[in-house]
């Protein structure tokens, strides 16, 4: 029986299920290798493999890995007049907004954009009356647990707090699902270059794979030029000759690139930092 024989896949799967690898990590790695074999033999397609790998990624990530930092949140200040709030909500084009009072660590609720329609017909409209309760979660919460909570509580957005109780950011159910199925674009999504590169508290950069080399050069002070490649993901793939997997670390010049999210077809998210300058 050859490796291309579909029976080889089922033999490997049976061996996996009935053998006892030393650790869960080894068992997970072997299962993924078996599923990749199934894909190469045509038993599952690339989309199915990508989603299965996404499920494994969700089980390994925490909220801190995917949250939208507080500096990038579109806030609503309860003290602002309604004629200031409405245009800002229209411009941001989200369905939900965290509302604060006094300072941004004091989140008092969640505003649904659709509820603002009521102010057009209700002369006594009071924004406070229409705020939904905010859900607060620690940044260390596993994504798998969060997804279960989102489903059971029918929440779509949570406020993420750090170890000191301050607001670190927000996370939505869409953010979690995108770890499984890839980017979910809706009619309001736009390519905002400002969101392509996000600096983290430890001096690293969380970067979208689609970020242009021009923007990488501008923000990180590099000088990558390639007539055939436009994005940082393309540069990394060219460097290693394949689409890397989550956890792979690739060095390109002075940059150290860690793959945070990828599927068999493309790199979605990288965490990049510069090598320390050699001491004189």
Automatic annotation (TrEMBL):
Name of the molecule in the record: Magnesium and cobalt efflux protein CorC
Annotated Gene Ontology cellular component terms: plasma membrane
Keywords: CBS domain, Cobalt, Magnesium, Repeat, Transport
Function in brief: Plays a role in the transport of magnesium and cobalt ions.
InterPro entries: CBS_dom, CBS_dom_sf, CorC_N, FAD-bd_PCMH-like_sf, FAD-bd_PCMH_sub2, Ion_transp-like_CBS, Transptr-assoc_dom
Span of domain CBS: 130-190
Family indicated by similarity: Belongs to the UPF0053 family.
CDD domains noted in UniProt: CBS_pair_CorC_HlyC_assoc
One GO MF term: flavin adenine dinucleotide binding
UniProt-listed SUPFAM superfamilies: CBS-domain pair, FAD-binding/transporter-associated domain-like
Species name: Polynucleobacter kasalickyi
SMART domains (UniProt xref): CorC_HlyC
